[in-house]
Amino acid sequence: MSPKFRLIKYRGWFYAAWREDGVSRRKALRTRDRESAEQTLKSFTAAFEIANRPEIITVEYCWNGYRETLKGRPAFSTMGFEAKSVLPFFGSLDAISISEDDCRTYLVKRQVAGRASGTVWTELGRLRSALKWAERKNLIAKAPAIYRPPMPPPRDLRLTREQAKSFLTAAKMPHVRLFTLLAMTTGARMSALLGLTWDRVDFTGRLIDLADPGRPKTKKGRAVVPINRTLMAALQEASAGALTPYVIEWAGHPVKEVKHALASVGRRCGLPWVTAHVFRHSVASWLAEDGVSMEKIAELLGHADSRTTYKTYVRFTPDFLRDAAEALEIDAFKQDVRRNANS
């Protein structure tokens, strides 16, 4: 892919600067005016990309180019993992030549390897996004249609309150227990909790600001959530012995992932299917069961639109479809029959 160009100033003149093959390079833009230099840099960048464009635009070329646009966002890392499966199969292919048969063959290959249809659905969706990006960049004339298997229904994995207590009891390691408590009392995503720093924990106001100011804004919102009594005690204890700015830490280092630790705890207490997202889904379900409004649940989960929350969790509310069920009482049918007979 093309190097990343930047604007620099040297002795009053602007230059385009970049690194190529490990060597720093620069080119004079012949202007002292920043606005003019920025426009010239855009033209230079476009010309460089065209001149260095490969004869055949492969899937790998498109994939890597699209991934670069996601730098600083979680999807950048995710695409790195997905590439290990997608690129060995599609990478060397001409981007405009992918067919439905190619996608179906990939699906079968991944299923034989034990991957769920939902995983393949996501991987092929990412491939489609990369090719659409290539089309927008005029790298290819038109992105081919990418076949994907039907999206599987979401798994309704959630903990009962008793199961949650069992899990928490089995979580002996301090950082795993604190993560579990945070997840069970805030409904926050794993990335938000692992990135949480002490400066966003307000002990006086009893609030946690899950929004990281240094994180690029995405569609997944993060809320300001209250600290309840149980969590307050755990946070105060952890804060007293903190060795890093991060709330979830171990051995003087921030914790990068808890997937394996949660799986280990789950196996010990007979709940091997528990993941960080199960906590989030469980929290929302518990709140709905207790009659908390969909608007408040949406705020806690960081949903921008409460309709998303309503669609997923309204079925857990105590009175969901109660009036509909009462309207179908057999006694009501009998009364209608008598009224019709008397009329």
Architecture overview:
This protein has 343 residues and is mainly α. It has three domains: 6-51, no CATH class; 59-136, DNA polymerase, domain 1 (Orthogonal Bundle); 161-316, Intergrase catalytic core (hpI Integrase, Chain A, Orthogonal Bundle), CATH 1.10.443. It contains 15 helices and eight strands. The protein has helices at 34-51, 59-68, 74-90, 100-112, 117-136, 161-170, 174-186, 190-194, 229-240, 259-268, 276-289, 294-301, 306-313, 322-327, 330-342; strands at 6-10, 13-20, 23-28, 201-202, 207-209, 224-226, 249-250, 253-254. The protein has a three-stranded antiparallel beta sheet with strand order 1-2-3, with helices on one face. Helix 2 packs across helix 5 (117-136) and helix 7 (174-186) packs antiparallel against helix 9 (229-240). The chain is globular, with a radius of gyration of 27 Å. The termini are far apart. The model has no long low-confidence stretch (mean pLDDT 88).
